[in-house]
Specification:
Helix content: over 70%
Order of helices and strands: HHHHHHH
Oligomer: single chain
Largest sheet: none
Distance between the termini: 77 Å
């Protein structure tokens, strides 16, 4: 199990590249609380989508598989960022594939701790999902809040008084 997790995270690192993984890592570091809340919201939205998908008749299996794959990819991307964060802590700033794999190994081992492993698994899954969604899959640490930011319209220039 641990080898599989480390290999998946290494594959995620190689596919996404160091820059996007670095953005995910900084999202976990700078916005951990918001990442956790975003992870809860994404999980709730996923359940709602699955319930809706169960009502569409013959497309239900296809939609369920698509939603499950999207969730799995999101968690994998988030786990890669979290693994990078823990790897940087353990290697004192290393930003390499080795540090990411070391972080993935630590996350996996923490999830096997008796009694507390379930808690760690839940927290890591929510943080991973939230950090991936919050960063736009590694685009920017505050990508999602920027999507909802209100942009003030620029008023047209006013004419000076007395001109027509």
């Amino acid at each position: 199990m641990a080898t599989c997790n480390v290999l998946l995270v290494a594959l995620g690192y190689l596919i996404m590249g160091g820059q996007r993984v670095g953005v995910l890592e900084s999202t976990v570091r700078e916005h951990a609380g918001l990442s956790l809340l975003t992870g809860i919201a994404v999980m709730i939205a996923t359940v709602v989508l699955l319930v809706i998908a169960s009502m569409v008749g013959p497309l239900t299996p296809i939609l369920a598989v698509v939603i499950a794959l999207a969730g799995l990819i999101t968690v994998l991307i988030g786990y890669t960022g979290m693994s990078c964060r823990l790897g940087k802590i353990l290697t004192r700033g290393g930003d390499s594939l080795g540090a990411v794999c070391l972080g993935a190994l630590l996350i996996t081992l923490l999830q096997f701790v008796p009694f507390f492993g379930v808690f760690f698994c839940l927290i890591f899954a929510l943080l991973a999902t939230g950090s991936a969604a919050l960063s736009g899959y590694g685009k920017a640490p505050d990508w999602l809040p920027n999507q909802f930011a209100t942009k003030q319209p620029v008023p047209p220039p006013s004419r000076p008084h007395g001109t027509s």
